[in-house]
Design brief:
The protein is an all-alpha fold and 69 residues long. 62% of the residues lie in helices and 0% in strands. The chain has 3 helices and no strands. The protein has a domain of 48 residues. The longest helix is centred in the middle third of the chain and has 28 residues.
Length: 69
C-alpha cells in the first residue's frame, strides 16, 4: 500500500495556472461586488446616508471611482 500515489495533490506544472485563474476570478468577483454596493449607495437618501455616517461628499467621491478600484 505504500507504493500508491496520492492523486489528490496537484503537480507543480498545473499549480501556477490554477493560481492565476483563481486570482483572476477573485478579482472579477471583487469588482462586481464593488459595483453592486456602489449602485446601492447611489439609491440611498440623505436620512439613510446620515444613519450610516456617510456624508453626501463621501458618497459622491465613492461613486466617482471606477469599479476596479
Amino acid at each position: 500500500m505504500d507504493h500508491l500515489l496520492d492523486l489528490a495533490t496537484t503537480s507543480p506544472q498545473s499549480k501556477p495556472r490554477f493560481t492565476w485563474t483563481r486570482r483572476l476570478l477573485g478579482g472579477l468577483a471583487d469588482s462586481l461586488e464593488r459595483a453592486r454596493t456602489r449602485r446601492l449607495l447611489a439609491q440611498l437618501d440623505g436620512r439613510q446616508l446620515s444613519d450610516l455616517g456617510i456624508s453626501p461628499s463621501d458618497r459622491v467621491r465613492e461613486l466617482d471611482k471606477p469599479f476596479w478600484r
